[in-house]
Specification:
The radius of gyration is 65 Å and the shape is rod-shaped. The chain is an alpha+beta fold. Helix content is 48%, strand content 21%. Among the domains are: 136 residues, Response regulator (Rossmann fold, 3-Layer(aba) Sandwich); 101 residues, PAS domain (Beta-Lactamase, 2-Layer Sandwich); 169 residues, 2-Layer Sandwich (Heat Shock Protein 90), CATH 3.30.565. The strands form 5 sheets. The chain has a 5-stranded parallel sheet with strand order 2-1-3-4-5, with helices on both faces. A 5-stranded antiparallel sheet has the order 7-6-10-9-8, with helices on both faces. The structure holds adenosine-5'-diphosphate (ADP). The site of adenosine-5'-diphosphate has 21 residues, from helix 18 and helix 20.
């Protein structure tokens, strides 16, 4: 065996010649290098050996025999690492050789041996010593291991136990992880760096409808086509950048339904940070998203419908379904007398919007053989889903963007009637409306129906009001004409009656009974005259011809004069005046203001049938004049006070007592007062009396006068 390590040879000899010869021979060994150490003194041999630890000891027979044998014994005693000992002799038959070989010397060499023989012997001796040392080492190890075996066994058992425990914990953890992953309500997937699925959980397979086996070892694009390719692109990005992509909102068409998910992609690394692949976390938000879309649509449509008085908003309402719920939609309405009419149509593609009118007009719906589904929905008031919108038409003829993938025709039902239908269509290949989506469309149809009903009843009310207003106008015109027509003959009648009475009273041409009858005729003619005057006033008020002049009028004088005129006609009533000494001037039309005071005084008398005090007060404050008329009459029921100044209104207690009237007086009072920039109010307790208070702005000197009222008005009193 050759070795590259230089071997040390200790030569114990008293002669330098041996050393030179041996060194020379060993130096010629081509396969092994030696260093030869010469030792001449026998007594130092063992120590030298222990210091040097030579690979071979050569003992020369030039030493004394006894020394040779002693040395051999000494070297053999340092077992187990006893060196290889070789004897260097002159003769082959030396008795020393036998002695030495018996004592453990490996071999001998002759001084005359060839160098080859020397190398061979030394090498073999070293090999034998190495072998012996190795065997000794092994034996020692063996012995040691036998000694330590119980401990080792115990340690090994402990290790095995720990390993078992660790494996059990690891299995438990893995089982737990498996359970968590599989029972997680969110989709989880892991792919390797080659973008192939390594693991997917149950939730994900439920979401995408493919079993686990279809995923494993394959790429998303191979499993899911286009949308899988997009998935892969995101993975590629994560793998390339090592950065996660978090909460990406994606929408895909799966099982015919539009699904929405929140997706995050994370790089997955081992403990040393090496990239192992990419993990995906997918949360299905379809439910939430669909209800958000539904709410958004209904809210947007709701505000449009609320803001619209007629059906013109229906097109925009249909547009609120774009793009999530529809590609196009229409509203058809039916009148009792009319056929089904397309009243609103909207398409995401503006150019196609116009085409809808041709494809879905009344004519087209009626020539399609069987009853068209839209007409059926209107007739039956029931929603139809995925009914053929182009029956009896070769589908190829219909533009692709109008060919429905899915559709809902919902009835417009309000107040138990179905005046039309809302048709909503998606052309997205493979899509089918879900129940939820259909419910949103039906709700939208209900809201449209409310608008249609409201618009129709608004129109009905408008027409009814127009009819009523026309009737009122006609009536007022008639009253005005009649009053004008009656005025002239009545004036003649009144004039002649007055003349007759005056003559009769002067000449006593008539007896007392006839004179009384004549007075009654005159009184009733005057009453008729007042009624006609009132009717004319009302007609003037309505035609806006009641323009007052603004001249200074003393309210004290007006009130005093009218009270004075009235007093002689009163039997049960007493008028008490509370007037300031100074005039109280207001800017106005004297005749009309007289009319106000007169009406209030007459009412005070009329509605206090049992008589009593009628108190007339005039006051002035800084900016206004105040006139009030109080009585102790029947008063007015509190609930009726707010309507007191309305035209034709008469309080219930006045009617109950059969006190006659037309319900015009207070209306005229308020109109005149307000046209003077004033106000009139009433305070009353039923059964105790009433107080009417008029407030008017004071006359300001220098204010420009308003033109006087028309002469017709003035003539009324003449
Ligand atoms: P008319 O007296 O012709 O009915 P008015 O317009 O003058 O019409 O009055 C409207 C109604 O107000 C009267 O019918 C009556 O019920 C009520 N009213 C007016 N003045 C008084 C009053 N002083 N006391 C009680 N009720 C009054």
């Amino acid at each position: 065996m050759t070795t590259s390590r230089p071997r040390t040879v200790l030569l114990v000899t008293p002669g330098v010649a041996d050393s030179d010869a041996l060194q020379r021979d060993l130096a010629d060994d081509p396969d092994q290098a030696y260093s030869v150490v010469l030792l001449e003194r026998v007594d130092q041999a063992l120590q030298q050996y222990l210091d040097l630890r030579p690979d071979c000891v050569i003992i020369s027979d030039a030493l004394r025999d006894t020394d040779c044998v002693a040395l051999v014994d000494a070297f053999q005693s340092v077992m187990p690492s006893a060196p290889a000992v070789v004897l260097l002799v002159d003769q082959e038959h030396s008795p020393l050789i036998c002695e030495a070989l018996q004592r453990g010397v490996y071999d001998y060499i002759l001084r005359s041996s060839s160098p080859r023989r020397v190398w061979w012997t030394v090498r073999k001796a070293i090999e034998a010593a190495d072998l012996r040392a190795s065997l000794a080492q092994q034996r020692q190890t063996l012995e040691e291991s036998v000694v330590h075996q119980p401990r080792l066994v115990a340690e090994r058992e402990e290790l095995a136990r720990k390993e078992g425990e660790t494996r059990r914990l690891m299995n438990e953890a893995l089982a737990l992880l498996d359970t968590l992953i599989d029972s997680a309500p969110i989709g989880l997937a892991f792919a390797d760096c080659d973008r192939r699925f390594v693991r997917v959980n149950r939730a994900l397979t439920i979401m995408n409808g493919r079993p686990v086996e279809e995923h494993l070892g394959r790429r998303p694009a191979e499993v899911f086509g286009d949308f899988g390719a997009e998935w892969e692109r995101w993975w590629q990005k994560v793998l390339a950048t090592g950065e996660p992509i978090v909460n990406l909102e994606v929408s895909v068409l799966l099982f015919g339904r539009r699904q929405y998910a929140l997706v995050s992609y994370y790089p997955v690394r081992d403990v040393d940070g090496n990239l192992l692949g990419v993990g995906s976390v997918v949360t299905d938000i379809s439910q939430r998203k669909r209800s958000e879309i539904g709410q958004r649509v209904l809210a947007a449509a709701g505000s449009m419908l609320a803001a619209s008085p007629d059906t013109s908003a229906l097109g925009d309402v249909v547009r609120t379904l774009f793009p999530d719920l529809a590609d196009y939609g229409m509203v058809h309405l039916q009148d009792e007398r009319e056929p089904l009419l397309l009243v609103a149509a909207a398409h995401r593609d503006q150019e196609l919007e116009a085409q809808l009118a041709t494809w879905f007009d009344a004519e087209r719906l009626s020539v399609s053989g069987d009853v068209h589904p839209i007409a059926r929905v209107v007739a039956e008031g029931r929603t139809l889903r995925d009914a053929p919108l182009f029956p009896a038409i070769d589908e190829e003829m219909v533009p692709a963007q109008l060919r429905p993938a899915t559709c809902v025709i919902a009835p417009l039902i309000a107040h138990g009637r179905c005046p039309g239908a809302l048709t909503v269509v998606s052309v997205e290949a493979g899509r089918q409306y879900t129940d939820e989506e259909s419910a949103v469309i039906e709700e939208l149809a209900r809201r449209c129906a409310m608008l249609v009903a409201a618009a129709r009843s608004y129109e009905e009310v408008r027409q009814a009001r127009a009819t009523a207003e026309a009737a009122v106008e006609q009536r007022d015109r008639f009253i005005s004409t009649a009053a004008h027509e009656l005025k002239t003959p009545l004036a003649v009648l009144l004039g002649n009656a007055q003349l007759l009475l005056r003559r009769a009273e002067q000449d006593y041409a008539l007896d007392a009974i006839n004179r009384r009858n004549l007075r009654i005729i005159l009184a009733q003619a005057q009453r008729l005259n007042r009624l006609i005057a009132t009717l004319l006033d009302v007609s003037r008020l309505e035609s806006g011809r009641m323009v007052s002049a603004r001249l200074p009028v003393d309210l004290c004088r007006v009130a005093g004069q009218l009270a004075e005129e009235l007093t002689p006609t009163l039997i049960r009533h007493v008028i008490s005046l509370d007037l300031p000494d100074e005039p109280v001037l207001v800017a106005g039309d004297e005749l009309r203001l007289e009319q106000v005071v007169q009406n209030l005084l007459h009412n005070a008398v009329k509605y206090s049938p049992r008589g009593g005090e009628i108190r007339v007060t005039v006051q002035r404050s800084e900016h206004e004049a105040l006139l009030s008329v109080s009585d102790q009459g029947i008063g007015i029921p509190e609930a009726e006070l707010p309507r007191l100044f309305q035209r034709y209104f008469r309080a219930s207690n006045a009617e109950a007592r059969q006190i006659r009237g037309m319900g015009f007086g207070l209306f005229i009072v308020r109109e005149i007062v307000e046209s003077h920039g004033g106000t009139v109010e009433v305070q009353s307790v039923e059964g105790s009396g009433s107080t009417f208070t008029v407030r008017l702005p004071l006359w300001t000197p220098g204010a420009s006068p308003v033109p006087p009222p028309d002469s017709a008005w003035k003539n009324r009193y003449t």
